[in-house]
Amino acid sequence: VQLQASGGGLVQAGGSLRLSCVASGSIFSIAQMGWFRQAPGKQRELVATITSSNSTGYADSVKGRFSISRDNKKNTVYLQMNSLKPEDTAVYYCNYVIVARRKPWGQGTLVTVSS
Known about the structure:
The protein is mostly beta strands. About 0% of the residues lie in helices and about 50% in strands. It has no helices and ten strands. The strands form two sheets. It has a six-stranded mixed beta sheet with strand order 2-10-9-4-5-6, with no helix packed on it. Strand 4 (about 35-40) and strand 5 form a beta hairpin. It is globular.
């Protein structure tokens, strides 16, 4: 398994979840990683990124609510999601941000936010 995301589930609006993603590959520690999501009927979108030096970036829709972090010793990237909204409902994936380094997407982890 090259990318294994976990931690999704059903949560009420206003709740929190923490997603984890273990990535294979010796370049993990030097690569920019991202969390992506795909809602039903919509295209996949990038919601958060983190560089090898822990600089982070967020889509406007999640800024102030989501926080991305990484543990290079565990080849793992995390997404802490707070103040969840129904519009955050989607399958969440992690992957390398640079397209040339992308791994197959995997199954992702489903986040469902009820109103």
